[in-house]
Structures are given as structure tokens and as C-alpha cells.
Amino acid sequence: MNIATWLQRTASLGPARPALYLGRDCVADYAGFHARALAVAAWLKGQGIAPGDRVAIFMKNAPDYLIAQYGLWYAGAAAVPINAKLHGREADFILRDSGAKIVFTSPGLTEALAEAGAPGQRVDVTGPLWAGILEGPRDGQGPATRAPDDLCWLFYTSGTTGKPKGVRITHRMMMTMSLCYVSDCDAVRPEDATLYAAPMSHGAGIYNMLHVRAGAAHVCPPSGGFDPAEIFDLARHFGSVQMFAAPTMVRRMTDVARATGETGEGLRTIVYAGGPMYTADIIEAVDLFGPVFVQIYGQGECPMGITVLSRDDVADRSHPRWRERLGSVGRAQSAVEVAIGDADGNPLPIGAHGEIMVRGDTVMPGYWQNPEATAKTLVKGWLMTGDMGYLDADGYLTMQDRSKDMIITGGSNVYPREVEEVLLTHPQVSEVSVVGRPHPDWGEEVVACVVGAADWADLDRLCNDNIARFKRPKAYLRLQELPKNNYGKVLKTELRKLVAEGSDRGLER
């Protein structure tokens, strides 16, 4: 079944329900949303787009993003979402690799593609062609019939270790992920609004379908991005707002609220994911905003669908092990199994440390035209996530680090996150990332990259009081900010380069 059928059904049952907003301004009800998607589908078919073809979206957040997306789904095509923060040459690689024949764009990005010599027809959603498409004939057939395992999204990984790989995401995966959200994360009601403050090409946008299914409102901030003050204003206005946020966004919202007296009125649910949420940060956020937080763990290969730490778990302070649970990423979502395995994909016993593995209906069937990478990642029926962790007897999964980020010093394993958690409890540390660097005797030694004014001696004492001595950083690098990719993830490869340059950049013992 075509995931876009949910829009058709909602438009039929509640055509006058407000659907798409730019800030406080409603630009389409569900009947209008549906009609415009039909018009886009008719135009795409006129351009020769057939079911299974790829159509890209390289746009900043805007209501037209969803119209383009549902229009191409109505035509039976697969969406290729491209982060609007990527360089034109990076987008060019994705267009060529995916074979996308048409790309919907927005101002600035259209020109970036032209400069890169990217292939395919470009349609700027602020231009006259787009306006003509929306006013043109509508496809009278409705959403094209698609099989559950047909391609729905072709999502390209962030590519921090080389060229990005295209993850094949099917209609079945999208539907299962959406239904797991309702089952495991949070209810979605017609009176709710989902706010797109993070890129719609990624975690924030992939949750649109379950809100379409419920007939909820879709709100794009006028800024087109993340602005805490704007978010607080819109939350107050709409009154029951759900949103996706990376941990760095939650941290910024907390800081702004502390400085301005904001309470988060109108924020119903904030789903956080995409990087480590440090325990001290989420405790402070819950103290300030209340029990509005839900954590999920997923990755492109199993989008948003591996585990969930419920609202109650995030807010609980009564369970004897609440702090340990708060440091976890929760329990397996309903449609998957989660296990810890060795390098060969063999499950390990409860409590053992190893690679996180997952299988179920939200796991990808493989990478796009990359059988080698698929064979390395799908092993014995399991998705090998590349993340390290362990499961407790109650099924809570604690994620330690990416396998490639683990530091081995003197034969002992050090997971950077456990060191980072300790350092972040210092009031003068705002951000930290721990990496390893080569050492002639120990193999590797621990180095902490710190944003903040903390004294190194104080940090040493803090570590000595809380973790084993071999885990204590042997050197510190003070930075103005941590290098991050377009999804807000810290680039440890870049940090290792900075650490290697050491003496010229303030590396201190």
C-alpha cells in the first residue's frame, strides 16, 4: 500500500481541517493539500515519471516540501530527500547515484545545483513553473498502487566516513515506523500540531506521515530552521505541539529558556534523537519544561525504529535505577528485536558488551546498488548498527559509542561517552567530545576536546572521583565549538585531526 493513501483518507474524512502552516498562517486545509499533491502527480506523469522512478527534494523547510513529497508519492515515485545544508557538489553526488530525474528545490539551492552541474530537471517551488503546476490539471486516479516492499524513500547517510550510501526505505518500513510511534512513543490527535524546526529531509520530516494520518497540523517556522524563541512563540500559539529535536537543540532551548524565563508552554512532546543526550542535560530540561520528552534510537538503516525511552521513563525519579535508565536509549520498539552480538553477528548474553543488532519490519532490505556494503551490514538476518552497547535484564539498552570510536588503551576499552558524561557535570563545560590518539606504549590515550572555561586540574579531579584512572583524559584541547556535520553530529574524524595538530592548538596535559 502506498503510504500517501493516508493523505487521501484524511482529506476525505476531514477536508476542512487545517493542514499546512507557515508560522501562524494556514496555507492549506487537507482538501487543498490533497488537491495540490494530485496536481504535482499529474505534472510528474506528464514528464514521464513512472512508478519506481526517483524524484529528489533539495529544499529548505516549507509547506511546499510536503506537497512535493506527497505529489511524487501519488505518482508512484520514490522520494530522495537531500539535506538543504549540503553543498551543491554533495547534492550532485546523491542525484547522480540515485538516478533522480527531477529535483524540487528552493532559492539558493537551485543555483547551487546549477553551479555543480547537477543532472535532472530543477523545479524551484518559489518560481512560476511550480505555481503553474499547482494550478494545472489533477491526477484523477489518486495515489498509485505500490507494493509494501516497493521503494518509498531513498535516504542517503551523512557520509562522515566517505561517500554516503543510499538506504532503501520501503512503504512497509514507513508504515511500521509510523504505527510504532503511536504504539510506543506518543499518541497523535487531530488537535495536535507538529513543528518542523529540524531538517524535513531527516528525522523531523520522516514523522510527517503519522501526523497526516491523524489529521494534525504541520507547522513550518517562518525562519525555515531552528530558533528557540520562535519555537516557544509558536508552541504557545498552537497549544499542543509535537516536535523532533537533536540533543544539541534541546540543550539550546534549555539555555534560552533559562535566560528568558520561558517555560515551554504549549510543548506537548519533544522527541529527541540523533546523538548522545547527556544525563545532566536531560535532567535539567525535564526540570524546566516538565515531562514532555521521549527519546528514540534509530538510524537511516532502521529509521526512528530501534528503541524508545518513554515519557514516563525520562521523567521518572522514583525508580531505584532511574538514573541508569535515563542514561539508556530505552527498550525495543514493538516491531523489532534488539540484541547484542559479536563481530560475526552471534547474540551475546544479557549484560555483555558488544555491537547492537536489530531485526524486524523497520530494517532496510539493503543499500541502493551497493551489495558489498549490504552484505557487511546485514548479517545472519540482523542489521549490524555499528553502535556498541549492552542490554540489562529489563530490556533497557545502553548505547556506549560507535564501534570505531571506542578507545583501547593498555588493552582496556574506554567508551568516550562515559568520560564525556562525567566532564559535562562541570558547570564550566558546555560541550565535550572524547577521542583517542596513538601512544607508543599504550596503543591509544584518551584526549578530551572541551568547549568551556573549566580548569584542567578541576577536570582531572572530577574524573579521578568518578571513573577509573585509565579512563581519565591524558590531555585536553580547548575549542570554541565542536565540529559537526549537517545533522548536528560531532565529527570525531575532524577532532582527531585537531588533536594530531595538538601543540599549535592549545593541547594541554
What does this structure look like?
With 509 residues, the chain is α/β, with parallel strands linked by helices. It has a domain at 406-508: 2-Layer Sandwich (GMP Synthetase, Chain A, domain 3). Helix content is 34%, strand content 27%. The chain contains 18 helices and 26 strands. A hairpin with a 2-residue loop joins strand 13 and strand 14. It is globular. The model has no long low-confidence stretch (mean pLDDT 92).
Please give a quick description of this structure.
The chain has 18 helices and 26 strands.
Please estimate the helix content.
Answer: 25-40%
* Mean pLDDT over all positions: 92
Q: What is the 3D form?
A: globular
How many DSSP-defined strands?
Answer: 26
Q: In CATH terms, what is the fold-level topology of the domain at 406-508?
A: GMP Synthetase, Chain A, domain 3
The CATH architecture term of the domain at 406-508 is 2-Layer Sandwich
Work out the strand percent: 25-35%
* Strand order in the largest sheet: 2-1-10-9-11-12-13-14-15
What's the Cα radius of gyration?
Answer: 23 Å
Tell me the span between the first and last alpha carbons: 60 Å
Please give the largest β-sheet.
Answer: 9 strands, mixed
Structural class: alpha/beta
What's the CATH first level of the domain at 406-508? Alpha Beta
